[in-house]
Write a structure and sequence with these properties.
Blueprint: H1 16-25, H2 29-46, E1 48-49, E2 55-58, H3 62-69, H4 74-80, E3 85-87, E4 90-93, H5 96-99, H6 102-134, H7 140-144, H8 154-158, H9 166-177, H10 192-203, H11 207-217, H12 236-239, H13 243-250
Antiparallel strand pairs: 1-2, 2-4, 3-4
Helix pairs in contact: 1-2, 1-4, 6-13, 9-11, 11-13
Length: about 270
Protein backbone atom coordinates (compact mmCIF):
# COMPACT_ATOMS: atom_id res chain seq x y z
CA UNK A 1 0.00 0.00 0.00
CA UNK A 2 1.44 3.35 -1.00
CA UNK A 3 2.14 5.81 1.79
CA UNK A 4 1.40 5.72 5.50
CA UNK A 5 -2.14 5.74 6.85
CA UNK A 6 -4.04 5.48 10.14
CA UNK A 7 -7.46 4.21 11.18
CA UNK A 8 -10.08 6.87 11.81
CA UNK A 9 -13.83 6.24 12.16
CA UNK A 10 -16.29 8.06 9.90
CA UNK A 11 -18.37 9.03 12.98
CA UNK A 12 -15.40 10.31 15.00
CA UNK A 13 -16.68 13.90 15.10
CA UNK A 14 -19.80 12.78 17.00
CA UNK A 15 -17.87 10.69 19.57
CA UNK A 16 -18.61 11.94 23.12
CA UNK A 17 -14.86 12.19 23.80
CA UNK A 18 -14.40 14.51 20.81
CA UNK A 19 -17.36 16.58 21.96
CA UNK A 20 -15.77 16.76 25.42
CA UNK A 21 -12.40 17.91 24.03
CA UNK A 22 -14.19 20.55 21.95
CA UNK A 23 -16.05 21.86 25.01
CA UNK A 24 -12.83 22.12 27.05
CA UNK A 25 -10.69 23.73 24.35
CA UNK A 26 -13.37 25.86 22.70
CA UNK A 27 -12.64 24.29 19.30
CA UNK A 28 -15.19 23.12 16.74
CA UNK A 29 -15.72 19.34 16.57
CA UNK A 30 -14.20 19.19 13.08
CA UNK A 31 -11.12 21.08 14.28
CA UNK A 32 -10.67 18.56 17.11
CA UNK A 33 -10.78 15.70 14.59
CA UNK A 34 -8.14 17.43 12.47
CA UNK A 35 -5.80 17.90 15.43
CA UNK A 36 -6.31 14.29 16.52
CA UNK A 37 -5.36 13.20 13.01
CA UNK A 38 -2.16 15.24 13.25
CA UNK A 39 -1.27 13.78 16.65
CA UNK A 40 -2.18 10.17 15.83
CA UNK A 41 -0.26 10.33 12.55
CA UNK A 42 2.84 11.35 14.48
CA UNK A 43 2.19 8.61 17.05
CA UNK A 44 1.76 5.94 14.36
CA UNK A 45 5.21 6.74 12.99
CA UNK A 46 7.15 7.12 16.24
CA UNK A 47 5.49 5.20 19.08
CA UNK A 48 5.73 1.51 19.99
CA UNK A 49 3.42 -0.55 22.19
CA UNK A 50 4.34 -1.37 25.76
CA UNK A 51 3.37 -4.48 27.70
CA UNK A 52 -0.13 -3.08 28.34
CA UNK A 53 -0.74 -2.26 24.69
CA UNK A 54 -0.37 1.50 25.20
CA UNK A 55 1.86 3.67 23.01
CA UNK A 56 4.73 5.10 25.06
CA UNK A 57 6.35 8.45 24.23
CA UNK A 58 9.16 8.84 26.79
CA UNK A 59 10.43 12.38 27.16
CA UNK A 60 7.45 13.92 25.35
CA UNK A 61 5.52 16.44 27.42
CA UNK A 62 1.97 17.74 27.30
CA UNK A 63 3.39 21.16 26.46
CA UNK A 64 5.10 19.71 23.36
CA UNK A 65 1.83 17.98 22.37
CA UNK A 66 -0.03 21.30 22.62
CA UNK A 67 2.64 22.94 20.48
CA UNK A 68 2.51 20.10 17.93
CA UNK A 69 -1.25 20.40 17.41
CA UNK A 70 -1.11 24.20 17.82
CA UNK A 71 -3.69 24.36 20.60
CA UNK A 72 -3.02 25.20 24.26
CA UNK A 73 -4.75 22.80 26.66
CA UNK A 74 -5.34 20.10 24.05
CA UNK A 75 -3.26 17.51 25.91
CA UNK A 76 -5.05 18.16 29.21
CA UNK A 77 -8.39 17.85 27.40
CA UNK A 78 -7.35 14.50 25.92
CA UNK A 79 -6.28 13.34 29.36
CA UNK A 80 -9.64 14.35 30.86
CA UNK A 81 -11.55 12.11 28.39
CA UNK A 82 -9.16 9.16 28.81
CA UNK A 83 -7.38 9.45 25.45
CA UNK A 84 -4.00 10.40 26.92
CA UNK A 85 -2.00 9.26 29.93
CA UNK A 86 0.65 11.45 31.54
CA UNK A 87 3.50 9.75 33.43
CA UNK A 88 6.66 10.94 35.15
CA UNK A 89 8.70 9.97 32.09
CA UNK A 90 6.46 11.30 29.33
CA UNK A 91 3.06 10.60 27.82
CA UNK A 92 1.28 7.50 26.53
CA UNK A 93 -1.67 6.86 24.20
CA UNK A 94 -4.02 4.18 25.60
CA UNK A 95 -4.91 1.15 23.44
CA UNK A 96 -2.26 2.07 20.86
CA UNK A 97 -1.69 -1.60 19.91
CA UNK A 98 -5.40 -2.14 19.21
CA UNK A 99 -5.85 0.89 16.95
CA UNK A 100 -2.60 2.37 15.61
CA UNK A 101 0.02 -0.38 15.39
CA UNK A 102 0.95 -2.13 12.17
CA UNK A 103 -0.89 -5.22 13.43
CA UNK A 104 -4.05 -3.17 13.95
CA UNK A 105 -3.80 -1.84 10.40
CA UNK A 106 -3.39 -5.35 9.00
CA UNK A 107 -6.43 -6.57 10.95
CA UNK A 108 -8.44 -3.62 9.61
CA UNK A 109 -7.47 -4.44 6.02
CA UNK A 110 -8.30 -8.12 6.57
CA UNK A 111 -11.69 -7.21 8.04
CA UNK A 112 -12.52 -5.11 4.97
CA UNK A 113 -11.53 -7.94 2.64
CA UNK A 114 -13.53 -10.43 4.71
CA UNK A 115 -16.61 -8.19 4.52
CA UNK A 116 -16.27 -7.97 0.73
CA UNK A 117 -15.82 -11.73 0.60
CA UNK A 118 -18.98 -12.33 2.64
CA UNK A 119 -20.96 -10.04 0.36
CA UNK A 120 -19.59 -11.78 -2.72
CA UNK A 121 -20.41 -15.17 -1.18
CA UNK A 122 -24.01 -14.16 -0.54
CA UNK A 123 -24.36 -12.78 -4.07
CA UNK A 124 -22.83 -15.94 -5.54
CA UNK A 125 -25.26 -18.13 -3.59
CA UNK A 126 -28.23 -16.14 -4.91
CA UNK A 127 -27.01 -16.30 -8.52
CA UNK A 128 -26.26 -20.04 -8.26
CA UNK A 129 -29.74 -20.79 -6.93
CA UNK A 130 -31.31 -18.79 -9.76
CA UNK A 131 -29.22 -20.56 -12.40
CA UNK A 132 -30.08 -24.00 -11.03
CA UNK A 133 -33.77 -23.28 -11.29
CA UNK A 134 -33.47 -21.77 -14.78
CA UNK A 135 -31.07 -24.13 -16.55
CA UNK A 136 -31.96 -27.69 -17.58
CA UNK A 137 -30.03 -30.55 -15.99
CA UNK A 138 -26.98 -31.65 -17.96
CA UNK A 139 -27.18 -34.93 -19.78
CA UNK A 140 -25.24 -37.81 -18.26
CA UNK A 141 -22.70 -37.89 -21.07
CA UNK A 142 -22.02 -34.16 -20.62
CA UNK A 143 -21.37 -34.65 -16.91
CA UNK A 144 -18.97 -37.49 -17.59
CA UNK A 145 -16.96 -35.48 -20.11
CA UNK A 146 -15.56 -33.06 -17.51
CA UNK A 147 -11.78 -33.17 -17.93
CA UNK A 148 -9.72 -34.36 -14.96
CA UNK A 149 -6.69 -32.21 -14.17
CA UNK A 150 -3.77 -34.59 -13.60
CA UNK A 151 -1.16 -34.35 -10.89
CA UNK A 152 1.90 -32.58 -12.24
CA UNK A 153 3.96 -29.45 -12.35
CA UNK A 154 2.46 -25.97 -12.12
CA UNK A 155 3.04 -25.38 -15.85
CA UNK A 156 1.23 -28.58 -16.79
CA UNK A 157 -1.69 -27.86 -14.48
CA UNK A 158 -2.00 -24.26 -15.60
CA UNK A 159 -2.91 -25.41 -19.11
CA UNK A 160 -5.93 -27.34 -17.85
CA UNK A 161 -7.18 -25.33 -14.84
CA UNK A 162 -10.05 -23.07 -16.03
CA UNK A 163 -9.78 -19.30 -15.66
CA UNK A 164 -6.02 -19.53 -15.19
CA UNK A 165 -6.36 -20.06 -11.44
CA UNK A 166 -3.61 -22.65 -11.17
CA UNK A 167 -0.98 -20.09 -10.13
CA UNK A 168 -3.27 -18.71 -7.40
CA UNK A 169 -4.15 -22.18 -6.09
CA UNK A 170 -0.51 -23.22 -5.97
CA UNK A 171 0.31 -19.99 -4.11
CA UNK A 172 -2.17 -20.96 -1.37
CA UNK A 173 -0.64 -24.44 -1.09
CA UNK A 174 2.83 -22.86 -0.91
CA UNK A 175 1.75 -20.57 1.93
CA UNK A 176 0.30 -23.51 3.86
CA UNK A 177 3.68 -25.25 3.51
CA UNK A 178 5.32 -22.37 5.38
CA UNK A 179 3.53 -23.78 8.44
CA UNK A 180 3.81 -27.46 7.42
CA UNK A 181 6.85 -27.95 5.13
CA UNK A 182 6.13 -31.62 4.47
CA UNK A 183 2.53 -31.14 3.40
CA UNK A 184 1.49 -31.19 -0.27
CA UNK A 185 4.96 -31.33 -1.85
CA UNK A 186 3.24 -31.69 -5.23
CA UNK A 187 -0.41 -30.56 -4.95
CA UNK A 188 -2.89 -32.71 -6.83
CA UNK A 189 -5.70 -31.14 -8.80
CA UNK A 190 -7.82 -34.17 -7.84
CA UNK A 191 -7.52 -33.42 -4.13
CA UNK A 192 -10.34 -32.07 -2.01
CA UNK A 193 -8.13 -29.16 -0.92
CA UNK A 194 -7.47 -28.08 -4.51
CA UNK A 195 -11.18 -28.05 -5.32
CA UNK A 196 -12.06 -26.16 -2.12
CA UNK A 197 -9.43 -23.48 -2.77
CA UNK A 198 -10.73 -23.10 -6.32
CA UNK A 199 -14.31 -22.78 -5.01
CA UNK A 200 -13.33 -20.06 -2.55
CA UNK A 201 -11.51 -18.11 -5.27
CA UNK A 202 -14.52 -18.40 -7.57
CA UNK A 203 -16.72 -17.04 -4.76
CA UNK A 204 -14.63 -13.90 -4.61
CA UNK A 205 -11.93 -14.60 -2.02
CA UNK A 206 -8.42 -13.46 -2.94
CA UNK A 207 -5.17 -15.33 -2.48
CA UNK A 208 -4.32 -12.91 0.34
CA UNK A 209 -7.66 -13.72 2.03
CA UNK A 210 -6.87 -17.44 2.00
CA UNK A 211 -3.32 -16.84 3.23
CA UNK A 212 -4.72 -14.71 6.06
CA UNK A 213 -7.13 -17.53 6.95
CA UNK A 214 -4.25 -20.04 7.09
CA UNK A 215 -2.28 -17.73 9.38
CA UNK A 216 -5.38 -17.03 11.49
CA UNK A 217 -6.03 -20.74 12.06
CA UNK A 218 -2.45 -21.11 13.27
CA UNK A 219 -2.98 -18.43 15.92
CA UNK A 220 -6.37 -19.71 17.14
CA UNK A 221 -5.93 -21.38 20.58
CA UNK A 222 -8.57 -24.06 20.01
CA UNK A 223 -6.97 -25.16 16.73
CA UNK A 224 -3.51 -25.09 18.29
CA UNK A 225 -4.53 -27.71 20.83
CA UNK A 226 -6.15 -25.72 23.62
CA UNK A 227 -9.21 -27.95 23.69
CA UNK A 228 -10.53 -30.78 25.81
CA UNK A 229 -9.05 -33.38 23.46
CA UNK A 230 -5.63 -31.76 23.28
CA UNK A 231 -5.65 -32.13 19.48
CA UNK A 232 -4.51 -29.68 16.84
CA UNK A 233 -7.00 -28.85 14.09
CA UNK A 234 -4.86 -27.24 11.39
CA UNK A 235 -5.80 -29.09 8.21
CA UNK A 236 -5.96 -27.03 5.02
CA UNK A 237 -9.26 -28.70 4.15
CA UNK A 238 -10.72 -27.40 7.43
CA UNK A 239 -9.48 -23.85 6.84
CA UNK A 240 -10.94 -23.46 3.33
CA UNK A 241 -13.98 -25.72 3.81
CA UNK A 242 -16.39 -22.84 3.22
CA UNK A 243 -16.51 -19.06 3.12
CA UNK A 244 -17.49 -18.78 6.78
CA UNK A 245 -14.40 -20.70 7.85
CA UNK A 246 -12.18 -18.47 5.74
CA UNK A 247 -13.73 -15.33 7.23
CA UNK A 248 -13.55 -16.61 10.82
CA UNK A 249 -9.89 -17.53 10.61
CA UNK A 250 -8.89 -14.44 8.60
CA UNK A 251 -10.34 -12.21 11.33
CA UNK A 252 -8.67 -14.09 14.20
CA UNK A 253 -6.92 -11.59 16.50
CA UNK A 254 -3.24 -11.94 17.43
CA UNK A 255 -2.55 -14.84 19.77
CA UNK A 256 -1.36 -12.54 22.54
CA UNK A 257 -4.80 -10.89 22.60
CA UNK A 258 -6.51 -14.23 23.14
CA UNK A 259 -6.52 -16.73 25.97
CA UNK A 260 -2.98 -16.82 27.36
CA UNK A 261 -3.32 -20.35 28.79
CA UNK A 262 -0.21 -22.32 27.71
CA UNK A 263 -0.53 -25.11 25.19
CA UNK A 264 -0.87 -28.59 26.77
CA UNK A 265 2.58 -30.16 27.13
CA UNK A 266 1.23 -33.58 26.23
CA UNK A 267 -0.44 -32.45 23.04
CA UNK A 268 0.03 -34.88 20.17
CA UNK A 269 -0.47 -33.03 16.90
CA UNK A 270 -3.43 -34.33 14.96
CA UNK A 271 -4.16 -32.35 11.85
CA UNK A 272 -7.85 -33.11 11.63
Amino acid sequence: MAGEWIKMRVDLASDPAVIGIAAITGLEDDAVVGKLHRLWSWASQHLRSNRNGDGNAPGVTVAWLDHHVRCAGFGDAMQSVGWLTVTEGGIAIPKFEAHMSQGAKQRAVTAIRAKRFRNAERNAATVTAALRSALPEKRREEKNNTPIVPRGTGAELDKQEPNGRCHDILAVFAHYRTHHPRSFPVPSAKSKEWKLIRDRLQEGATVDDLKAAIDGCHRTPHNLGRNDRGQKYLALELIVRNGSQVTRFAEAPPLEEQDDEPLPKSTTPKYV
